[in-house]
Amino acid sequence: MRFTLLTIITSLFIFSHSFAQPKITYVSSDNSTGLLQVFTMNVDGSSKRQITNVPFNCMFPRWSPDGNKIVFRTDDGRIYMVDNVLSDNASEPLFVFGGDNPVFSHSGDEIIFSGDHAGVTTLYIMKPTDPDAEPISPIDFSTQQVISNDGRYIVFSGFDEGSKCIFRMDVDDESDDYISKISMNGNANLEPDISSDNQKYVYASFNNNLQGTIYICENGVETPLTKGITSASQPKFSPDDKYIGFVSIEDTNIEFNIMLSDGSGKKKFNVKGGNIGVFRWIDNQTIVYDADEQNLHSIGTLNIVTGENNIIANSGMNLHPDVFVNSNNESN
Predict the structure, then answer these.
(1) What pLDDT score was predicted for residue 25?
(2) pLDDT given at position 45
(3) Does 156 fall in a domain?
(4) Where are the alpha helices (DSSP H) in the chain?
(5) Are 154 and 112 spatial neighbours (Cβ–Cβ below 8 Å)?
(6) What is the largest CA-CA distance in the chain?
(7) For 297-307, how does the pLDDT look when each residue is reduced to its tens digit (9 = 90+)?
(8) Residues 80, 74: contact at Cβ < 8 Å?
(9) Pairing mode of beta strands 153-160, 286-293
(10) Is the residue at 21 inside a domain?
(11) Nearest-5° angle of CA 107, CA 110, CA 113?
């Protein structure tokens, strides 16, 4: 009896401990189809598991807030969802709708995405089993939406007077003024992010030569942060808002950088795997990223404090990592 009880307690501890560890989803061609399929793995690269087995390429998988579901799009613009991904019996991919950049709502019950339906390109929302999607933004070409940690705001890029601008949507505001404009410069403003306290916004502003500058907007004041860098993009706050991670382009080198929110303390990292592609914060000190070197696509992790840099997936083509953390952590 004592042995049985000890076994049960130990098993529960191991299960809860493994569930508490961050999980990564990504797409990889390292499978029998040779196409990009959705996988999951631990942050050290262990326990790789294929989630989908479909006759098309999967792209940009994103976790639900509870880690039980993954939504992704295909290379021909269809959105699918997989349920029960943390169990041994993940569901078959469920077709949701046509669109791009699908993410789960804060509750995890709905999917928000950009799409072109009935001649209108904007943001849409729907439950996975709904027959149709509902537009939620009146702004033309609303794309690249990011949801705040508390679910109150959606920050996105959209057209205003002929240029791409950053907007904030207050989902709790039932008035006609539920959308406000954040960016003020006249360039093409893309790739927004919002701080955990909803007080700061960062985005990449591209000039006519497609050279990007990272801006921050706080208290209605817009400030450039990356002057002197040829081009910068993909700004993302660390979970504690201490750092802004971003990607810089100098000649043919695409590298990961960090800086403080006032633009000081810039530091560049030449990551393993070649030129960095997309990245996500795992915690306040660590990112996961994909990289490309001579058509070899790998996924790695980087600790910005210790400099520890590990490749965790490099068999086949590996792209588009996203992170799930438990309720005691934050991801971005």
Answers:
(1) 99
(2) 98
(3) yes
(4) 2-20
(5) yes
(6) 74
(7) 999 999 999 99
(8) yes
(9) unpaired
(10) no
(11) 120
Secondary structure in 3-state letters for 11-38: HHHHHHHHHHCCEEEEEECCCCCCCCEE
State the pLDDT at residue 73.
98
Residue 68 sits at φ, ψ, to 5 deg, of -90, -15
CA distance 14 to 205: 46
Range of the domain at 193: 58-324
C-alpha triplet 234, 124, 325: angle, nearest 5°: 50
17 belongs to a structural domain: no
Global pTM value: 0.91
Query: 4 CB contacts (<8 Å, ≥6 apart)?
Result: none
Separation of alpha carbons 160 and 184, rounded Å: 11
Rg for the chain, CA atoms, rounded: 20
Q: Torsion over CA of 60, 64, 68 and 73, rounded to 10 degrees? A: -30
Q: State which residues of the chain have pLDDT below 50.
A: 1-18, 328-331
- Is the Cβ–Cβ distance between 326 and 277 less than 8 Å? no
Q: What is the CATH number of the domain that holds 83?
A: 2.120.10.30
